[in-house]
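It is worth pausing here to work through a concrete case rather than discussing structure prediction in the abstract. The textbook approach is simple: state the sequence, then state the predicted structure, then interpret. We follow exactly that order.
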Amino acid sequence: MNEQLGNSTINGDAVEPLPGQGWQALLLLGVACMTAWLLLYPFDFVAQKQTEWLAERQIHKLNTLSNIMLFVPCGMMGAWVLKRWWPRMGFGIIVMVGIDSGLFSLAGETVQMWLPGRQSSLIDLSANTAGGVVGAMIGLTLAPRLTSNWRRTAAWLSVRVRARRALFVLLILLAARTAPFDASPETFYLKESLFYQTKQAGTPFAKTRAWLAGDSGRTETAGLVDRRAEAITELKRAGLNLLLFTLAAAALLRAARENRMLTGRDGRGVGGVLVLCIGLVIATELAQWPIRSRLMDMTDPVAGIAGVIVGLLIASAAGPPRLTAR
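Step two, the predicted structure:
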């Protein structure tokens, strides 16, 4: 006899709960909050309606695709959790997730009537619902693998403090690299970002080199003072990225070595951590493309990659971690 009940697996008389249920709840809450943020940002509500309810009916290809993708994570997470509760259900879970996604989106589109610059759109409602359904189908397909991977990850996090420390550093890194999360899926804005903002950034440390190349005898001129201020800002941002990725790389390598030592495999893992960290550098830089107040700048990934190398060198020089009690 082998059946599942709630978030536990019942095998005979033994009950094996899914580990890390608190982290799973936080993950679900985080996905829902980020989805709501992107639906309603910048939260500058007004007393009177700005648009009519679901009045926008025009299809913008990139905007519609963005709204579909926005609800895919919610659909995946919802289907995964519901499959744990009702393992014999399939199509019914897709229907429930689709209804939930539609209601979530409907609430957001209704609130958008009081947001200047936003349109309450029937097209967005349909796209969000479709995204939830697509995510639910993906979540159902991947549910066994997600559960298996979650068990290993949650068990690792619960046993050793270095894993929790690495996760905490990664969350800080992602928050710092994408704040203030004011992303816009609007087609016109993405085009403006691509063709204007990203080209203004220039080559790595362009503002610093422009300041250093200035006339040192004219330090009081407004132009040189402005270049100096821009260069200092650029160097501060580069220093922050260097520090963030140094901490991330060092924490991830220490945690990976500890995990490999606990599982009886060799404890290096430098290559895997290097690839992961470089992927984080690229991903967090690309994530700034649709953020209104951020610019994609080659200075940041250069500093980030340098931080990854420094972090790996520090963690390698520290030697293998000691397996102390938690």
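Step three, interpretation. The chain has two domains: 2-159, 187-317. Residues 2-159 form one domain.
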